[in-house]
Specification:
Elements: E1 4-10, E2 13-21, E3 24-29, H1 31-34, E4 55-57, H2 62-65, H3 74-83, H4 90-97, E5 105-110, E6 146-151, E7 157-158, E8 168-171, H5 180-194, E9 201-205, E10 223-228, E11 232-233, E12 236-237, E13 239-242, H6 243-246, H7 263-274, H8 280-292, E14 303-308, E15 311-314, H9 347-356, H10 362-382, H11 390-402, H12 404-411
């Protein structure tokens, strides 16, 4: 079988190549990148490896596979149907969408003589979209249908020309989960009022989506959700990786990787990456998820951001959805001690995790109690003005005021 190669560029600078030979992959990074000080981080999964020599992998490298649209998603089906790129063709898919991946990494295919094989022209921003089938060459993770888009001066949604940065994420929602765009927008607004770092979000209707093929709306709601990308800033790309990438978990295993979904394991890894002070933000976000009834905070719904290329930080909030509205008995995607459903998580479970992470300090507990007060106050002040239906507001309110963790944090 012929070995194929992908050229890697981080923030516009070539850093090495990935070679694919059947199921076997090899990562070969350039010495000038490896020896640079401080070295921009490609991915946490590679930080403990000796990168001065090429590294062989027996199968596809999870870091790169996690950059592709998830199997079964709208973008994945688009690649299969319109471009005959099968779900197992990781090489072909990375080469096809590699100019508009999450973060600051770009990937380009290399021919057998070592030259870049992809000569696609990059149109200037704002160039009109060609007629005919939409040339989607972007990648966003997640099963919910989504696209990387821009907003025009009159707030119309525009799909950037191939290879350009969309600066917003457009999320469609099926009728299976009524009012999901409005609910997600509301929870992001609530998180912002509590004090979390949250990207700008908006709601729009189909009338603003003339550039999107009508076929994508089959079975979808008329209202859509827009979230500004935190890995794009004007024309610049900011590197990021989700926790599935950082922990080397394949996308199909984001719920089923055993130890790597244990909350203590994840928290310890984040503590080692971020440091004991910054990791407290992770626990604050966990408490917010419990308070609103979000059981779907899996590994791909947490990301590391590299505003400083060699210094990771927890990325802003995203995908904050109170799953109790549709799946009230769902167990959290990250396993709390005892694996309780979200509505039964209590302070003892939180304290146990903090103790195992050596973070059960009075100052940390006080900070988390103060957060619970802010969540309660923000919900009380804004909950009825977030655009939720009466029934949805009542469900979230009953959960927030009844979940043991919130009651015990508030009552001290």
């Amino acid at each position: 079988m012929t070995t194929r190669a992908l050229q890697l560029a981080l923030a516009g600078k070539n850093i090495g190549r990935v070679f694919v030979d059947g199921a076997r992959w090899k990562l070969d990074l350039q010495r000038d990148y490896v020896d640079s000080t401080p070295r921009p981080v490609l991915g946490q999964a590679f930080e403990d490896l000796d990168l001065r020599v090429a590294r062989d992998f027996r199968e596809a490298i999870p870091f790169f596979v996690n950059m592709l649209p998830e199997n079964g998603s709208l973008l994945s089906r688009w690649l299969s149907h319109h471009h005959q790129l099968g779900e197992a063709d990781f090489f072909g898919r990375l080469a096809f969408v590699g100019l508009d991946l999450p973060g600051a990494l770009t990937i380009t295919s290399v021919d057998h003589e070592g030259a870049l094989a992809d000569g696609r022209p990059v149109a200037p921003r704002g160039a009109p979209i060609a007629s005919g089938p939409l040339d989607i060459r972007m990648s966003l993770a997640g099963m919910q249908p989504k696209l990387s888009v821009d907003l025009s001066a009159d707030h119309k949604v525009v799909v950037p020309a191939s290879g350009l940065n969309g600066r917003w994420i457009l999320k469609l929602a099926s009728n299976r989960y009524p009012d999901l765009p409005r609910v997600e927008h509301a929870m992001m607004s609530l998180a912002r009022s509590v004090g979390f770092e949250v990207p700008e979000t908006r709601l729009a209707t189909r009338e603003a989506l003339s550039a999107i093929p009508g076929s994508m709306f089959e079975g979808m709601q008329s209202e859509v959700y827009l979230c500004r990308r935190f890995d794009r800033e004007d024309e610049a790309r900011i590197h990021q990786e989700d926790l599935a990438q950082a922990l080397s978990v394949m996308p199909l295993n984001k719920y089923t990787e055993g130890q790597k979904h244990d909350l203590v394991y994840v928290a310890k890894k984040l503590k080692a990456i971020l440091g004991p002070e910054k990791v407290v933000t992770f626990f604050e976000r966990l408490i917010f998820d419990v308070a609103i009834g979000n059981a779907d905070a899996h590994l791909k719904n947490w990301s590391l951001l590299y505003r400083v290329p060699h210094q990771p930080e927890l990325a802003p909030c995203y995908d904050l959805v109170p799953t109790i509205l549709w799946l009230p008995q769902q167990v959290p995607a990250l396993d709390w001690p005892g694996k309780p459903v979200t509505a039964r998580i209590d302070f003892a479970a939180l304290e146990k995790v903090l103790q195992q992470c050596k973070l059960a300090r009075p100052d940390v507990i006080a900070r988390l109690r103060e957060l619970a007060v802010r969540i309660d106050a923000a919900w009380g002040a804004t909950g009825r003005s977030l655009g939720l239906s009466t029934a949805m507001h009542a469900t979230i309110d009953a959960h927030l005021r009844g979940v043991p963790l919130m009651k015990q944090l508030l009552n001290g």
